[in-house]
Specification:
By secondary structure, this protein is α/β, with parallel strands linked by helices. The chain has 16 helices and 17 strands.
């Protein structure tokens, strides 16, 4: 494949420190992207060898999910060393080569930072276990004595996001906090040693050429650890859904006001670089609270999960879009838009689920209740993509969506790797279905992912979705993405939109600039297509002057 044309490359120089405000960022889940060494696990060399795919696609940056040393108790988010590369994925030299090649191709590099917890194999945690109760080593984490006559009960009723108690007892009788898997002990961000160590980590990667950071569980670092610890009682099982039931900033461990002191400190560090390093928060909090993470003196941007969770409904989406733009504007940030990531059902499948369907129950059925029409799912996903790419702000793509990949909902139980499956007693299947290795070719044991089979099984249908099957094929989803991103680069101007006041009930219709309008039919019947030159359509148009259901058109 030829190198990307220089005139399509984004400006990587300090002349454009705001490159991120309307960028398109492509998320790479390293273990599932490309396997260069043949061990079945994706690696950094595999990513580097495939970077031209991203440059030709037309994205501005790639975001690397964790590639750090990990036993994979949570897909790499259980980190044993925040300043190294998992030897199964490569070396620091491999990372440097990846960054150099990305920059040569005009791509920025964003990496995941996971500050809420470490792996239980982290040297700090192993030291804490050895040193015992009352030691300085335990102050880096959240250790507490248990309740009950003999300390046999957890210190509080706090629940893990993955199911069950958020506390695990050690052999000496104390308990430690893990808001996620037991292999992921929470750090104590009241510790200055913890704060200093993460400043070192941020500098380490920034000095190696990283352009920005995605902050995992950004709303979870600060916790109310004053004695006695508070039970959450009737607030809710995991707390995240319960933030609307408590006074803002007062939950024991989610979205506390003190967390913003940490990010103001980080912003000071980011701004010592030229251009300043960027950051985006993963913060599952209501919109008004989300704006705080995106303020210019903090992280600058925050993921917009209301958009991801919205149904395929014109009124709902119009409200979410308008609200999200207002929230971003209030923070001086740009909005973010995402349809898929490594934690949710791929939108090719999710958007076809009937309203009210629980995606977890659908996954547990193996994707059979209800059964979905793949062609109808792809049609809706393509329309959703063109809608998203027309919105002001940054768009975040997840690897494989440019191929139209559906969720692999029928993975057998013995293949599942997500800890959610075991921790919930086999009542939740987890996230493996969106993490299945990518297909690059139409044949081979893993469809070009690597020389052998991959770490998760791929269905035979992946052959038809492969990059080799779609590249250059008129009307393919890959070519739709390439064309859309090429046009978007030319059309993007301001960070505003203007809604049409006379569009039909099931239609979203807005203007971005004098030369760009977007219209999406989310209803079940065709509607008149507004006049104007069709720049791009999510499905072929027949020239009849109507806009079919589940279709988006960009108009001049």
């Amino acid at each position: 494949m030829a190198d990307v044309s220089p005139d399509l490359a984004p400006d990587l120089s300090s002349r454009n420190p705001d490159w991120w405000r309307q960028a398109v960022v492509y998320q790479v889940y390293p273990r599932s992207f490309a396997d260069a060494d043949g061990d079945g696990l994706g690696d950094l060399r595999g990513i580097t060898e495939r970077l031209n795919h991203l440059a030709t696609l037309g994205v501005d940056a790639l975001w690397l999910s964790p590639f750090y040393p990990s036993e994979l108790a949570d897909g790499g988010y259980d980190i044993a060393d925040h300043r190294d590369v998992d030897p199964r994925l490569g070396t620091l030299d491999d990372f440097d080569a990846l960054v150099a090649e990305a920059h040569r191709l005009g791509l920025k590099v964003v990496v995941d930072i996971v500050p809420n917890h470490t792996s239980h194999l982290h040297p700090w945690f192993q030291e804490a276990l050895r040193e015992g109760p009352g030691s300085a080593a335990r102050e880096r984490y959240v250790f507490r004595p248990g309740r009950g006559a003999h300390g046999e009960l957890p210190p509080t009723d706090w629940q893990s996001v993955f199911g069950g108690s958020a506390w695990r007892r050690t052999s000496d009788g104390e308990w430690y906090l893990h808001l996620f898997a037991p292999e992921q002990p929470d750090l104590n961000w009241d510790s200055e040693e913890v704060r200093a160590d993460f400043r070192t980590t941020l500098r380490f990667w920034s000095d190696r050429g990283v352009d920005g950071f995605r902050i995992d569980v950004a709303h979870g670092l600060a916790k109310d650890l004053a004695a006695p610890l508070r039970d959450i009682g009737g607030i809710g099982a995991t707390g995240e859904a319960s933030l609307l039931r408590v006074a803002p900033g007062s939950h024991p461990y989610w979205d506390r006001d003190e967390v913003h002191e940490i990010y103001r400190d980080w912003r000071t560090l980011f701004d010592t670089y030229s251009p300043p390093r960027t950051a985006v928060a993963e913060a599952w909090v209501p919109g008004a609270r989300r704006a705080r993470y995106a303020r210019p003196d903090e992280l600058g941007q925050a993921f917009n999960f209301e958009y991801l969770e919205a149904g395929w409904d014109a009124d709902d989406l119009r409200e979410v879009i308008s609200g999200s733009l207002a929230v971003a504007r209030s923070a001086g940030a740009s909005a973010t838009w995402v349809l898929s990531n490594h934690d949710v059902v791929r939108h090719t499948s999710r958007l076809r689920l009937p309203p009210g369907t629980d995606p977890r129950a659908w996954l547990l059925s193996g994707g059979t209740v209800p059964a979905l029409d793949p062609a109808a799912g792809l049609r809706r996903a393509r329309a959703a993509t063109l809608l998203m790419l027309a919105l002001p702000g940054s768009a975040y793509l997840y690897q494989g969506e440019e191929l139209g990949l559906p969720e692999v909902a029928d993975l057998p139980a013995e293949a599942l790797r997500d800890p959610i499956w075991e921790q919930t007693g086999h009542t939740r299947k987890g996230r493996d279905g969106c993490r299945v290795p990518l297909p690059w070719t139409t044949s081979g044991p893993s469809y070009g992912f690597g020389p052998g089979v991959g770490w998760l099984p791929q269905p035979p249908s992946f052959a038809s979705y492969a990059v080799a099957a779609q590249a250059g094929a008129e009307g393919s989803t890959l070519e739709l993405y390439r064309t859309a991103l090429r046009l978007r680069r030319k059309l993007v101007e301001t960070e505003t939109l203007t809604w049409s006041t006379d569009s039909p009930a099931d239609v979203l219709y807005f203007s971005r600039s004098p030369g760009w309008r977007c219209v999406t039919n989310l209803g079940g019947v065709p509607v008149p297509l507004p006049s104007g030159e069709v720049l791009l359509a999510s499905v072929p148009m027949d020239g009849s002057g109507v806009l079919p259901p589940d279709t988006t058109v960009w108009l001049a």
